[in-house]
Structure formats: structure tokens, C-alpha cells
Amino acid sequence: MALATALLLLIAPSARAQRALDLDAATITELNAAFDAGTLTSEQLVKRYLARIAAYDRQGPAIHAVIALNPKALETARALDAERRAKGKRSPLHGIPIVLKDNYDTHDLPTTGGSVLLEGYVPARDAALVQKLRDAGAIVLAKVNLSEFASGSAYSSLGGQTLNPHHLAFSPGGSSGGTGAAVAAAFAQFGLGTDTGGSIRGPATVNGIVALKPTHGLLSRSGIIPLALSFDTGGPMARSVTDVAIALGAMTGVDAADTATRRSEGHAERDYTKYLLPNALKGARIGIARDFTGFNTDVDWIMESSLDAMRKAGATIVEVRFPKWMLEAKDAWYTAVRFPEFASQIADYLQNTPASYPKTLAEMIERSHGFTSLGVNGTAPNSSRWARFGNELAGGSTDDYRYRSVREHALPMMRDVVNGMLATNQLDAIVYPTQSTKPDRIDATGSSAAPDAQNLANLTGFPDLIVPAGFSDDRLPIGISFLGTAWSEPRLIALGYSFEQITRARRRPITTPALPGEAVVLK
Asked: Is 89 a catalytic residue?
């Protein structure tokens, strides 16, 4: 007994000096602490994530999020480890593995928009945001699936159907469903999505992760396959507000190739981590948009619990409603801009592809008619998305009075309304359930009659931060949105972080548990 006690005393200090973090829960800050302590390398981290992809993307639950793995990811990680030892880290993202929605240009991996129409296309250079992240030391681990050309359900003719890792019968949301599922399943530390009408935020809420649709113009869109540039923006998707803040700071800045980013001068920051304030809700005034509650008891229960948590943290909750006429018109206004812009802007993008690829939307329609059977590499028709090509082609032109009247008059009016609601009520943000109902089943038919708030942020250009808020009775994630005025990302990050810390609502998906030996050890 005396010998055993002596041995315990000898090893106890070492044991007490170390703690293990679940890979799923570790933030970029904590990974850097492990790098600095010498208990983790980038190569080891990449191997952990590759092991999870091998176990869960095509095997096990077969989430089917990944379209293409980067064959040089481990080689890049080893080089970055050597650079860290020789020169130190470039940034907090040095050696951090990420995934990209497959509408971001990458010079070393195909960029397809999930479509057989662009199968095999490798751009000459990276998208601006991808280049910024690589310059910061991030490792592109994989390109992931999406709604084809960023519209429709989480299905593409090239990538197939992605599943929700929380419940395989349910959709991971569109259009950044591959990013949402991959981040939730811990296939990488964070990922990039794109948002034109809710395409970052829908997948964030149904996969139970954090995400930001930033102010229009804060992040460059150059090198991203366009859907409608009046609304398009990229944005980070992660398992924590901390990681969203770190990723965002690495990507801001004016890009000469995207004139919208000129508006960010004087507003963009390089470090958003200083806004990770646990007590930010104390004294805050938060509006609750009642237009989007009352449609599902599970969602409403989570929202009321969230509001109660914010009150207990010191926030004042104010009931607000959007003008009924604006809610009734907004979807038609969205389509009036979205359809004409896609027809024009996809043609501009396609001019940079080799001659073997289609060059116009009309050519895309013509070629889609040639894909009616299954391909040997797993491709399949995507009739619902391809049928929408016709609607987009018939949606008018950007010279049309219907397009110009909405873009030049209706959209500024919407900005004035939302700014007025925030200012008149002295609000820091307006919150609402990111989706008014629970996630949809993959085999669901028809659409919900519940109103959707998500395109309000696109129509106004304002930022919207999504944070996990809880789970439904059948264990599906439910998220809450924090909507603010232009360039209010610092305040939204502060509020979202405070909410995250007091609620701790995010959970690992049950279909993608921890693998042996993947925990991160800190000294």
C-alpha cells in the first residue's frame, strides 16, 4: 500500500498538469495552446480530421458531405509545422484544417458548384477569401457538397444528398448544407459557406452550429460562383462563436476585384476576438420579432427559454414586429433581383472556364437535358434544380424596370425600416428563431406555411449571427438569430458569445461520436 501511494504521488503532478479536450469542443484558441505546449501538431490534427471523414462521410452514417479531399493536406500540414518551429505562427489559423463549400474557387481542387455541368473544372487561382485563409496558414482539407449552384435543397448532381448528422432522415439545409454537416460532424475546425437568401443560416441552425452572414461588402466575393451579387456573401461556419470571430478577422479587407468591399473601409476589423465578452448581455436591449414565433411548439419553447436566459443575464427584451406589407412583399422582391442576376452573372463567371464548359444559362439548360441517367462516378440528375434554370432564364434582365425598381427603391426602403426599428426601440439587435419550424425531413413534400425571416438580412445587407439555442423533442437542433444594422458584427459577436456561454446549448451529433485517441491534450 505504501509503495502504491508513493507511485501515485510521483505521477499525480504530471497528471494534474494535463487536461484533455474533445476535438469536437476545442476552439482555435485551445488548439493553439496545444500547439504551443507541444502536445499537438498540425499534422496530427489533420490526421484526426481525416480519420473522422474516413469513418463517417462514406462509412458509418455516410453523411456524404465531402465532394473532394485535398491530397496534399498532410504535406501542407508538415510544412506548416516546420515553419512554426522555425519562424513561429503566421496567425491563429496557422495549421488549422478547414472545409470550403464547392462554389469557392481553388487553384488545386475542382470547383463545380456541385454540378456535373462543371465537373472537373479547376480555376487558375483561389477565391479571395480562400487566398486570405491560406496566407494565414489555414489548410484546405476538403471541398464539400452544396445545393447545386447554391440554390434548392441539400442535393447536387455531382455530390448527391448530404445527410444531417443529428438525424440522418433530416435535411442539413441549403445551400451550404455540406459545410453545415461537415462542421457539425467535426470533419474540420470550421468551414466557409455562402448566403444569398439564408444559405449559411439555415444549415447552421439545423446542424446545431454557429455561423455568421456578415454585412454585405465586409467580405470579398471574387472567385465565388455567383447566385445574385446584390445579396451574395461568404461567411464562416463553426462550432463556437470564438472560431467564427477568429475566422472573420482573417478575411476582412478591401478587394479591388469586388467593389462592394469598398464600403467596408473604416468598418472592417482584423481582430474580432476582443468582442468575446461573457457579460455582453448585461444592459443590452434585445428585440424579439414576434412575426416568426407561434408556428411550432418546440421552436417557441426554445425561444422563450432563450429570452428568459437573456433576461437573467441582464438584458431587456422588447417585443417588435416588422411591417406586414414588407413581410408580404419581401419574397417577391427577392426573386425580382435574384433570378435576373443569376442569368447574367453566371455567364460572366463561365467566361473564365475552358471551352468545353457551357458559357450561358441557356447552354446550361441545353446540356442538362443530356443528363438523364446515373453516371459511373455516382452522378445523377437534379431535376428540381435544373427546372429552376428555366425560371431564372425567364426572370427578366437587369435592365428591366421590375428589377431596377426593387433594387433602387424597395431595398433601400427595407434598410430604412429595419434601421428605424432598431433605432426607435434603442435595440442592440433583433432576435428571431432562425427557422420558425423544425428541420425538414429529406423526403418531405411541399413547403411550410410558416414565414421565413432569413432573407431580411440579404435584402437589407445587414449581418445575422446564428447561435445554437436548444433541441426539439425529437432531438433536432434549433438556432437563434441575432440581426443587427450594417457593420454591427462586433456587437453581434459579443451578444452571441454571451448567449453561448450562459446556455451551452450545442451538442455533438449522435451519429458521429468521438474516435479513440482524437482528444486534444493541453499541459
From this structure: no
Assess contact for 288 and 299: CB atoms under 8 A: no
pLDDT at 296 over 90: yes
pLDDT digit string, tens, across residues 235-268: 999 999 999 999 999 999 999 999 999 999 999 9
Query: Is 213 one of the annotated active-site residues of the chain?
Result: no
Marked catalytic residue, from 147, 171, 175, 220: 175
Q: H helices then E strands: how many in the chain? A: 16, 15
Active site residue 101: yes
- DSSP conformation class of 170: B
Residue-wise pLDDT for 34-77, tens only, equals: 999 999 999 999 999 999 999 999 999 999 999 999 999 999 99
3-state secondary structure of 91: coil
The three-class DSSP label of residue 473 is coil
Record the pTM.
0.96
Dmax over CA atoms of the chain, in Å, equals: 90
User: Among residues 157, 176, 199, 264, which one is catalytic?
Assistant: 199
What is the dotted CATH code of the domain comprising 19-370+381-442+453-522? 3.90.1300.10
Alpha-helical regions (H) of 191-323: 201-207, 241-251, 297-312
Whole-angstrom distance, CA of residue 266 vs CA of residue 251: 15
Q: How far apart are CA 423 and CA 439, in angstroms?
A: 33
Fill in the amino acid letter for 323.
Answer: P
CA distances 491 to 80, 136, 237, 498, Å, are 34, 25, 18, 11
Read off the DSSP letter of residue 292.
Answer: G
What's the gap between Cα 204 and its chain centre? 6
Structural domain spans, the chain: 19-370+381-442+453-522
